[in-house]
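Exercise 7.
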Amino acid sequence: MVRKISVAWVLVIAVLVSGCAFSQDSDLIWYIDVAAPKHYDVWGVEMFLEKTGEQSWRQPVGYVGCCWEGPNGPTGPGSRVDPFPELIWIRWFSFAEQKYYVKLIEVPTNLLERMRKPASYVTQVDVRSGPRDTMIIGLAPGGTVVVWISNQIGNEIEVMRMKATEVPGDPDDFEVGTRNYLEEHGDYLKEHGIPTEGW
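Solution. The predicted structure, written as tokens, is:
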């Protein structure tokens, strides 16, 4: 009798644990951020996302500054996405170059699977493990687009590297923004120029 009760409890606990694992995976929250290299700020004009057969939607981006790498990157403004998209179309304005770019990103079919794999991250209390729940889209001069996945700065994995297409657009649409940008970064640009390769 005691053995039957013990077996029953083991089965109940196994079902509860498997149920928790399922609910944790189904309750995951995904994010998409947009980043730019320090001193090479951009304005995300439009970003459209699509999950084929389910939903397509516009996601605002706006001003994107630091950071691309180092202790503060890659990271930038972003928001939660639900569902996770299969296609991402983004158009942006480069303040340093005074150019517009556009890129259609086809999200790899196995990307969510890769993001679900636990990665260590540090809290104020201890070291924990969790999914890389954030996809970061980096936009650099010359139309370089780099995509990382991460759950904390420092454990990012680069998953894609592409070139965007320069498209027509009027830089005067960002006249005030460019003036403010150059007041802050103009001296840096004069000294270091605008590298369009090597990002």
